[in-house]
Amino acid sequence: MAYTPALARLIELLSRMPGIGEKTAARLAFFILKSEDGYTAELGGAIGRIKQETTLCSVCFGLTEADPCTTCTDDRRDASIICVVEEPSDIVAIERSGGFKGRYHVLHGSISPLDGRGPEQLKIQELLTRLTDGAVTEVVVATNPTVEGEATAVYLARLLKSAGVEASRIAHGIPVGGNLEYADQATVGRALEGRRRM
Ligand code: ZN
Asked: What does pTM read for this prediction?
């Protein structure tokens, strides 16, 4: 049996997603096809609206619906410490661990000369701007333990030193080459607790 054009189209679109091969895409497509109309309408609507309803916080560059985000405006969070991460999804991983009560800053990538990604493509200048009023005393660099993440951490440490801010690096509970996003809560919590000065 050949797929109908509509099914083939949906399978092709789904298979572009990370970690989704053609087999899984086909399973998902058949699941969607068999689902109740209410579910498919909600799913379609949620996908259609996600980009309009999600923006970047102008302070931390995390994902938010309202700018600035609730993390940046929450007075109960410690404004003297900023945790720097590569991607917005890393904030979710750290929040799940419950081990951090400061603010965040999302770089939107890591330094990777091979991919043509230099410091100027990341939100590094924006981070330095946040440090100018002296309210921030510590920056925890929580970039991933990959070659690019480490290179970014070393680069940041130098800048933070000249800005007069203490820089620390999360401990290596996260497997080398691993990703914060996929580490379990306890590991992320321990990595934060065991952070050391750079
Ligand atoms: Zn924010």
From this structure: 0.80
